[in-house]
C-alpha cells in the first residue's frame, strides 16, 4: 500500500514530531515486550530529531540502536554516522541504550561484515522501527542507484549487511539490506525540501528499485515531510 505522508509546517516541527512519535513507540515496545530495536540514519536531516529523541525519558537500557548504514571511516571522522549518534542521540539519557555498530574498523568492509552481521543478528534484529532518510537521487540508507552492491542489497535473499561502492561517495559504505529494512515493524522516512519532494513523486511513480531504491522500503511506510 502507498506510504502515509505527514506534512509539517517546519523542519523543527518535523524533528520534534518524529522524536515524540518514536519515543512513544519505544516506550510501548519496552512495556509490551521488554525490548525495542531501532535503526536510525545518518546524514544531515536527522540530527535535530536524534538529539531530541535522545533527551526523552524512557527505559533506554532496554533499547537496542543500530544504523541504517555507515560510511566506512573511523568513528572519529566527521563523516562517521556512529560519530553523529555519539554527538546527538547518545548525548543524553539514550546513552544507556545498547548500540550495534556497522563500522568494523578494518581497511575494507569485507573484513568486518561477518562480525558486524553476527552482532546485528544477536542484538538488533528483527527491527521494530526503521527511521530512514532519502536522497534526491531516490537512494535510502546506502542503497544508491547504480552502485556496486545494490543488486545484492535489494535481493530477497540478501545478507543482513552489504558493502556498497559508488562514485558519488568518497568512501565505501555499508548498508542494512532492503529486506532487513523492509522487515522493520514500522518505517519512518524523513524528507525535507522541494528537490526531495519531487524525488519522492518520481519514486512513487517508479517501478524499478534499481532506479529508485527507496521503492524497496516505501510501501506501508510513513513519510514525514517538511520544506
Ligand atoms: O549515511 C547517510 O548519509 C544516511 O544514512 C543516508 O541514507 C541519508 O539518509 C541520505 O543520504 C539523506 O541524507 P541527508 O539527510 O544528508 O539529505
UniProtKB/TrEMBL annotation:
Pfam families membership: Glucosamine_iso (PF01182)
Enzyme class, UniProt record, top EC level: hydrolase
Keyword Metal-binding: no
Record keywords, A-Z: Hydrolase
InterPro entries found in the cross-reference section: 6-phosphogluconolactonase_DevB (IPR005900), 6PGL (IPR039104), Glc/Gal-6P_isomerase (IPR006148), NagB/RpiA_transferase-like (IPR037171)
SUPFAM superfamilies: NagB/RpiA/CoA transferase-like (SSF100950)
Reaction(s) this enzyme catalyzes, per UniProt: 6-phospho-D-glucono-1,5-lactone + H2O = 6-phospho-D-gluconate + H(+)
Molecular function via GO: 6-phosphogluconolactonase activity
GO BP of this protein: carbohydrate metabolic process; pentose-phosphate shunt
Domain Glucosamine/galactosamine-6-phosphate isomerase: 10-219
Pathway: Carbohydrate degradation; pentose phosphate pathway; D-ribulose 5-phosphate from D-glucose 6-phosphate (oxidative stage): step 2/3
EC number: 3.1.1.31
Zinc recorded as keyword: no
Residue spans crossing the bilayer: none
PANTHER family: 6-PHOSPHOGLUCONOLACTONASE (PTHR11054)
Family to which this protein belongs: Belongs to the glucosamine/galactosamine-6-phosphate isomerase family. 6-phosphogluconolactonase subfamily.
Alphabetized NCBIfam families for the sequence: pgl (TIGR01198)
Record function comment: Hydrolysis of 6-phosphogluconolactone to 6-phosphogluconate.
Protein name: 6-phosphogluconolactonase
Species: Breoghania corrubedonensis
Lineage: Bacteria, Pseudomonadati, Pseudomonadota, Alphaproteobacteria, Hyphomicrobiales
Gene: pgl
